[in-house]
Specification:
This protein is an alpha/beta fold. The chain is built from ten helices and 13 strands. The chain binds heptadecanoic acid.
Length: 280
Amino acid sequence: MKTIIISDSSSDLLQFGGAEYKSVPLKIITDVREYTDDENLDLDGMIADLKKYKGKSKTSCPNVEDWLSAMQGYDRVFCVTITSGLSGSNNSANLAMRDYLEQNPDKEGYVIDTLSTGPESALIIEKLAEFINGGLDFDEIKTEIEKYRKHTHLTFCLESLRNLANNGRVNAAVAKIAGILGIRIVGVASREGTLEISEKARGGEKALSAIIKNILGNGYIGGKIRIHHCQALETAKAIRNAIMELFPKAELIIAKTAALCSFYAESGGVLIGYEGAEKC
Ligand code: X90
């Protein structure tokens, strides 16, 4: 029986060694170029291009065909998508899954709407792999992953909300505040899978304590935690040090955002996914 996890590139896992896995790319599109969020992309080059570029830019999610072609040949398919609250990727994956199961009634498939992105999606993918490798059957995996994701959270800290605002993914008034020099926006993925602002912090120190307060407030007690950053390694390390001081056994990994999260989180942005209390 061939099982696969397919995620769109918003999870920042363009490759994943834990199970049979494929990443389907989102795209970043300007008037002059298109950037495909896969391993061949020169990410720092894209960020530098976009810094200079003054025109319009947008993103596009995988379409039904992209998802469908990634599924071919597999008996059990688990799709993991960016939040349906901000992207059409989940809708495409669902339509693809409907077609796939209609054409292949003997196969099984399940689409997970993370209501999140980046490192929280990565945690869900890692846990799916554990369940698959542990020999759970299809229905058990569905039940267990739904239980697991009630306990995962996403906290973010952004220096600019320009691309989010320009693409209608966040309120323009909020984006203006983030544009003020030195202001960092700390927030979470809401229950609906949209951006929820928790704090506007002035300066790095204040932002760091707001991030830690936020993570602890969501019931983090030293489990898995993933920090994905866009050109913000120092911030990621500062968060790591603060977490390790409180929880020396924390299972913490720092990684870079891929293109989609880099485009929206922008340079200086940090996303933190972690296990915590049950979401209320
Ligand atoms: O379909 C598309 O074109 C993709 C649209 C994605 C829009 C938002 C991406 C956000 C990336 C920013 C901070 C974290 C926010 C989390 C809220 C759930 C990262």
